[in-house]
Each structure stands twice: as C-alpha cells, then as structure tokens.
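Tokens help. Our protein:
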Amino acid sequence: MLKGFRCETAKCPVEKKQRNLAPGMHGWRRGRKNEYAVRLREKQKVKRYYGLFERQFMGYFHKAERMRGNTGEILLQLLERRLDNVVYKLNFAPSRKAARQLISHGHVYVGGRKVNIPDYTIKVGSKITVKGSEKSLKRIKEQLESNPNFTTQSWLQLNREEPEATIVALPTRDDIQIPVEEQLVVEFCSR
C-alpha cells in the first residue's frame, strides 16, 4: 500500500541491494580501519560502557599500570569495583546513570558511612547498605522486585529482604561481561 507502482519493478529504490552502504554518493568508498582506529574504538567502548570521561579513564589506567599483574585485567577490575557500577550490578538501579544519581543523592552507605562519590572504589569485605528512610528503601525494593529473576555475580552477595550486599571477592575477567579486548586498550593507552 505504501510503496508506489515502481517498486513492483527491478528499479525499486527501497529494495535495491545497495541500501546496505553508507549514506551519500560515496558510501561505497569506506575502507577498512587501520590499527589506530581499532584500538581507539576499544578504548572508547570501555569509557562509554562505564560512563567515564577521558581524564578519569586515564587515571584508572595509570593506577592499573602501577599495580602488579595483567594491566588490562586490573584496569577492568578497578572499573568494575566503582561504587556506581556495583550498585547497578546489585540491581539497586536500572542503569549506571541512575546508580550514579542514587549515590550522589546520599541513598547508599558503605560500611555504615554515607558515600556520595560515584567513583568510590569498593574493597573486599565492604558492606553496601541503603539509607534507612522510607523513600530510599521503597525505591530500591521496587527496583529489586521489578526483576525477580535477577542473579548477582559470584563476587557479590545480596540480601534482598534488607537491601544490603557484601563484596566477597575481587571480580575476575570471567565476571566482567564486556565484549572488549583489554589488550588493545592497553596498547592504545601505553603509546
């Protein structure tokens, strides 16, 4: 109904096989990416996944560089242990941005003390609780009930009745489910 009479012929502009090209008259000229572009794309993917700015990301990279072990895995481990990411992984918030807002508004406590810094790094054995006010508890419990089949990762231990969690171990590379090659990120940032 919506297509014209011309679409019944071979000249149909809607169903031409050239439609999978980039827009514009030179869409077919797009070449393959060079090594720099591939490494930059991987770094940008990690930055956008965790919602970081360039300076924050490079700070984490330099911290990971100074630590012993595989720099790429340590970098991802540091990013995974950020408080906003942990709150998101515990299903206290529907997204990382919402988790960041929840933390900055003072709804999250770590070790019994209010923490309003989203990039606070969680240590093993830390206990994350929710502010005791009705509003905070209601909001978190609604989020937990909205996804009843949600399972926490092995390095986190969640108590759903009283919304609180404990960090039982450091996250491993298997726990970090980002489709990224951390070696390319390290190669890009090391140059």
In short: The two ends are 57 Å apart (CA to CA).
